[in-house]
Amino acid sequence: QVQLVESGGGLGQPGGSLRLSCVASGFTFSYFFMRWYRQAPGKERELVALISTGGRPVNYADSVKGRFTIARDNTKKMLYLQMNSLQPEDTAVYYCNWANYWGQGTQVTVSS
Q1: Residue 64: which H helix or E strand, with range?
Q2: CA 75, CA 16: separation in Å to the nearest integer?
Q3: What are the phi and psi torsion angles at 54 (to 5°)?
Q4: pLDDT, block means (10 residues), the chain with 112 residues
Q5: Residue 70 dihedral angles phi and psi, to the nearest 5°
Q6: Is 2 helix (H, G, I), strand (E, B) or coil?
Q7: Taking Cα atoms as reference points, which of 2, 21, 1 lies closest to residue 10?
Q8: Which of helix, strand or coil describes residue 89?
Q9: Which residues contact residue 20 at a Cβ distance below 8 angstroms, ignoring those fewer than 6 apart?
């Protein structure tokens, strides 16, 4: 069955960096666009970044443009989100997404 498992979250300092990873299984990863979403407390889940099958970033949320980078490794079935210049507003649970499938999420907290 389809599984998406995120890792790499934790406590980040304002201005610091974190790198999220997502390992995918149960589908032909290289055939599909992949997404990162996030959901902050009391807010709706929002799309953070979208990447094409070939690894081209297609779209970023305005709030993360220039700070976050989405990437993938099709040979390893891995999706990544490099988060730089972290801000407290980036605090959220981050989810890897394909079609109607979601990972369990990884908590990112940005605080000094």
Answers
A1: none
A2: 29
A3: -90, 0
A4: 96 97 97 98 96 97 98 98 98 97 97 94
A5: -95, 145
A6: coil
A7: 21
A8: helix
A9: 6, 7, 8, 9, 36, 80, 81, 83, 94, 106, 108
